[in-house]
Structure formats: C-alpha cells, structure tokens
C-alpha cells in the first residue's frame, strides 16, 4: 500500500486483509494524522517515502520492500467485502498469472448512492512492476484472470481528488498528447467536478485516438455519449452509436446511455428526431435482455433496476400509467428508491 492521511479508513482496510497475508507493507508519503500509528497497530511494516508526484514510482518502491513471492495491492479506501482466502490461494497455485479483482466503486449520482464495478490487476507474482505517473498500470505480458473476489471502494463517494489528479494527468498529456488513456482519465476527473465542456473535449480526443483494442475502449464510448448529453453537444452521437452498435451490442451500459441520448436528442429538436422515440424503449429493453454483466466495467443497475425504472418513466410520460407502474414495481422490488417514490406519487403502492 501507499498512503497519506488515511486514518479514517486504513484500519478497515488492514482489518479486512490481516488474516489473508503474511506481511503488510505500508509506504507512507507524508501523513500528518494517525495513519502511521494505525498501520503499526496492525503490525504492518511502515516505510517513509518522499512523494515525487509519481504513483508508479511509489508503488514500485513499496513492491521493493516486499519479501513475498506474491503481492496483493490495495488502497487505504478499499476493503475486502467477504472471505476470499480459498479463491486467492487457488489462483496463486496456477503459477504466473495476474489476478484482476472486482472493485465495487461507490459513487453519487442524481438519485443518490450508486455503485459501479471494474476489474483491476491487483494480485501478481514477484517482479511485476507499474508504470504511469497517475492511474498507474501493471506492466506485464502475463495472462490476466478475473477473480470472483470483491473489494469495496468508497474513496470518491463524498470526496474529489481532482485538485491532485488533474495536474498530474495534464503532465502526462503534455508528454503524450495523443495518448487516449490520459484523455479518458482526465475527462473522468472533469466530469466529477461538473466541468462538462472539458470532459467532452477530452473524451472526444480519447475516442478519436482509440485503436478499439484497449480494455477501456467500451467505457470511453459510453462516457463520450454521456459527455455529449451533459455538455449538450449532441451532433455526433448518432454517428457514434451507429459505428459502435455491433461491437458493443452485449454491453448494457452502452444501450442504457443510448436510451438517454435518444431522449435528449428528441427534446433538443422534437420535429426532427421524434421518429427515434421508439428507440428509447428498445434501448432499455435490450439492457434487460442482456442483464448485469461481468464482461465489462459496468454501473450496477444498467441491466436491471435502472433500466426498469427508465422504462417506467418512458411509459409514464407517453401516457401508459399502468405499464409504467408495472415497471416501477419490478424496479422497486430490488429495492430501488426512485421507483418506490414514483409509485407513491402515482398512488400505485
């Protein structure tokens, strides 16, 4: 681990792994709170590191302190959700592979609390290293395997780290102006602080620079469409949807954002785009047909309750209240609070 001023969450993280590992390496980059004291209380080996604005360098320094044949990487605002010791040991018996853990990211959207899942390389044999000043990546040709190991992450739920992250990402962009990965990452930071015009600018750069073989390619497409909606730059969306529909046909998040894009496009010029109205319903029905996915990094609900709720909204605004209530009831059963609220307003509880 690399940490700084994580006294609020470090104990939760270390407590969740203390029975899974043989040693804990905590590299502190300048804490002024009780972070180091808490690390010591879990018998972690604590090392001081002069922060040089390079996450990969700090990660690699931490790896250099490890005596193990395998390394598990966590951030202080992460924690294991359930007992996974048997699966971790079974994976390590495979030999030289890299394990991708399922990270359940808690975030805030317009309806309140929400969750997204992503798979990140976090368990690997000795000798594997990182590169990248920020949003550092594991550099290895070893095969990568998704594990059924869930790690909670809530560090961005009520906090933004854009003041730190944006300048570091801009430095990477200055060094590699055409690298789509850094444009994709900085766009997420701008979106988090509601600077939608900058998010759109960088996602357009990212999208046009993709080879479409990148692991983050599907999410770049989805985020680009969301950025069009947020920044009201809708002109290119139909072309993007048409271009990507075949490749992303099995991605519920893609169809979900398409439904939202069609709605905003129709509202922007009803006479011109009203013929697309049925595409809204078809998009959300496709989400339900696909269901939730582990194949992609995905917002939880796009293949279930969120799609059901949006179908309810669609039928409510088009005048079929009974059908709307039926969809709301299905979503409310998850439970999904916005659908419960709609049912109350409609008198269908």
Automatic annotation (TrEMBL):
UniProt cross-references to SUPFAM superfamilies, sorted A to Z: HCP-like, Nucleotide-diphospho-sugar transferases
Residues of the Glycosyltransferase 2-like domain: 1-97
Family matches, as CDD domains: Beta4Glucosyltransferase
Keyword Phosphoprotein set for record: no
Keyword Cell wall biogenesis/degradation applies: no
Listed GO MF terms: transferase activity
Entry keywords, A to Z: Transferase
PANTHER family: GLYCOSYLTRANSFERASE (PTHR43630:SF2), POLY-BETA-1,6-N-ACETYL-D-GLUCOSAMINE SYNTHASE (PTHR43630)
Annotated protein name in UniProt: Glycosyltransferase family 2 protein
């Amino acid at each position: 681990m690399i940490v700084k001023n994580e006294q609020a969450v470090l104990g939760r993280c270390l407590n969740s792994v203390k029975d899974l590992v043989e040693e804990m390496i905590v590299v502190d980059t300048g804490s002024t709170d009780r972070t180091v004291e808490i690390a010591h209380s879990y018998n972690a080996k604590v090392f001081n590191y002069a922060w040089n604005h390079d996450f990969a360098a700090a990660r690699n320094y931490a790896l250099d302190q490890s005596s193990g044949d395998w390394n598990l990487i966590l951030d202080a605002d992460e924690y294991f959700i359930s007992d996974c010791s048997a699966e971790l040991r079974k994976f390590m018996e495979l030999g030289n592979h890299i394990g991708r853990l399922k990270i359940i990211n808690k975030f805030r959207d317009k309806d309140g609390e929400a969750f997204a899942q992503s798979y990140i390389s976090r368990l690997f044999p000795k000798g594997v290293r990182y590169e990248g000043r920020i949003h550092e990546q594991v550099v290895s040709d070893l095969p990568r395997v998704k594990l059924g190991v869930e790690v909670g992450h809530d560090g961005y739920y009520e906090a933004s780290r854009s003041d730190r992250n944006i300048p570091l990402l801009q430095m990477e962009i200055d060094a590699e102006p055409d690298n789509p990965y850094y444009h994709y990452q900085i766009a997420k930071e701008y979106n988090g602080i509601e600077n939608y015009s900058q998010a759109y600018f960088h996602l357009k750069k990212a999208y046009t620079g993709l080879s479409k073989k990148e692991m983050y390619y599907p999410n770049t497409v989805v985020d680009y469409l969301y950025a069009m909606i947020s920044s009201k730059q809708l002109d290119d969306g139909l072309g993007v949807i048409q271009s990507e529909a075949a490749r992303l046909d099995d991605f519920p998040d893609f169809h979900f954002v398409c439904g939202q894009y069609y709605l905003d496009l129709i509202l922007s010029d009803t006479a011109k785009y009203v013929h697309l109205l049925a595409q809204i319903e078809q998009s959300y029905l496709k989400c339900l047909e696909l269901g939730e996915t582990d194949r992609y990094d995905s917002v939880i609900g796009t293949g279930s309750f969120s799609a059901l709720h949006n179908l309810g909204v669609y039928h409510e605004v088009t005048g079929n209240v009974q059908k709307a209530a039926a969809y709301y009831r299905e979503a409310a059963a998850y439970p999904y609070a916005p659908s419960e609220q709609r049912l109350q307003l409609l008198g269908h509880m």
